[in-house]
Amino acid sequence: MHCGACMRKVENALSALPGVTAARANLSSKRVSVVALDGKRNAEVYIETLSGLGFTASLLPDSAAQQTSRTSFDIWKRVGVAGFAAANIMLLSVSVWSGHSGEMPHSVQGLFHWLSALIALPTVAYAGRPFFVSAREAIRNGRLNMDVPISVGVLLATGMSLFQTMRGSEQVYFDAAVTLLFFLLIGRALDQFVRTRAAGAAENLLGIRAPAASVLLPDGSIERIATSEILPGMRLIVAAGERVPVDGRVYKAKSDIDESLLTGESLPRTVATGDTIFCGTLNLTSPIEIEATTVAENTLLAEIAQLMTTAEQAKGRYVRLADRAAQIYAPAVHILGLLTFVGWMLAGYNWEPALTAAIAVLIITCPCALALAVPAVQVVATGRLMQAGIILKSADGLERLSEVDTVVFDKTGTLTLGEPRLATDSPVKDHDLAIAAGLASRSRHPYSRAVVIAARSHGLTPRIVENVQEIAGEGLTAIVDGTQVRLGSASYCGYGGQPIQGLYFRWGSDAPVPLAMLDRLRSDAIDTLGVLRSQGFNLHILSGDQRDSVASAAAATGISYWMAAQKPDDKIREIERLSRVGKKVLMVGDGLNDAPALAAGHASLSPSTAADISQVAADAIFQGERLRPILELLEVAKLTKRRSLENFTIAIGYNLVFVPLAMLGYVTPLIAAIAMSGSSIAVTLNALRMSNPRRGVHS
To answer: What domains are defined for the chain?
Structure first.
């Protein structure tokens, strides 16, 4: 695949197959993913379909990264050959041009033309091969792509120049043909570099996985097996200094681990028996025995890599617009070239200047810059966000984020770390705490996790509770020993007094027992919100927590508009109210219990712990204990929109200026080659301007 037209052809053909529900091609990694109702469908069906379109397809090998590296090396080899040839032909051409004024002998001029042909012909055959092969396959299968006008222009310029050399004419355009290929290959190499850097982030992430693992057998012996052979339930030994091969649970021992790869947190975390541990985590201090809970293909690390790939290949509004424009543009190029040739012939000129003008039009109207305008920006933006620990999950998320003027925060797990702890003076009895922990183990709310942790810290084992029901915004309930028990909000548990910050536990008709919780703000919450405020964003807090707790957080962060005790429906109504008065709301909240509010916002963002990452229903997620990524995300969103519009302006403006000049004969094929290639390189370099953050996220 070389352009947007190729991608559409692939996607449309595969989507039309029986049983296929979706097909998405990725131009960056040269891959296509197919979702089918029949999971057992043979991949050969898809390969044969693509072969019928002129594409060579195969199942994704483990050495995909090596294949990408070979492709890049091949492109740069062709760049070197084309550049060397273009420089030497240009020397000969300059000699000929300067010789006109000095009355260079015709025989010397002819010799220089033949020397140029000797250099140009093998160069065009070698350096132009990727374009010629792509164009041939496109025409063979009844379609057009941007390589067709490129190939036609190069071959016409080369063929006409060879004919003119044989006739002894003064005007030849070997320099134009080779220079065009040189600049086109530079543009393609830059595009490959930009895309590979973003698409390669996922492969690099998977590359740190342990290739093998030590399995503890029932007889106590240890066997070394490939990570791909690990099955759930297997006991694994992870030595100090090794990475955890798959997701699992610590079965025995205690150690410090480095989870910075997953969470962005640089400080080690201590894990002990019963704690969850994830693939890619580095074991630091002591050997630990873990029980595998998943296979290698379904680990958290693999899910993150898949999210990265999905984000990079997703198509937003501007990308779809550029794709449609490029699709229409390809046949228009040939029509313009034909009209130019016919127009010059009708004006009384002979075929030589008419064909020269037509070649210039074919070269200068190549839609490379237009096709690169937005995808180049998108992949650079995606790569920059990945480096900042932000993963996009929505195709047009950045476009909507660039329009945001109001930021609404949840409190627990968003402004705070989401790691509340049960207060040490809580009056709950061990019997009740064990049952409450059994209920809480069925929920992913931060307060629920705190209850489970508190029970274990007291040496209690959470009671096994069946048929637990969770009511959003209220709490959990179940029948234990014939008695209904509840764990949740004050109102849900029937507490009529002034509620505390935390949960209540109620056994049957007994009085509710308070489980007070303590939490703290993220370390950079005050500074980050201060920057947002200085940039003109309206800041709000919508929290389900009690009034005193929310008021305290609002006062600490300087947010004047806040609402407490908000149920999911209340949050939705408030966000819809803000939308009705013209606000573009970014909802920042826990991706699990705030899913309805996230969906109601113009855009959405979730801070996510490692365990939550695959379940968040937001446009983007960020990891770590800091809010600073919000600033990075909003800046990248605005830069993406700005650079996309700039690239559209460059691509369209270039055509508006040079196409009429080429049709009128004021642009030679050489100038056309330089101008066309220059526009493609310009949009790529413009996209690369946003690859690195400026000093200070918003300086």
So the answer is: 4-60 (3.30.70.100), 212-299 (2.70.150.10), 315-389+630-699 (no CATH), 398-408+522-623 (3.40.50.1000), 421-518 (3.40.1110.10)
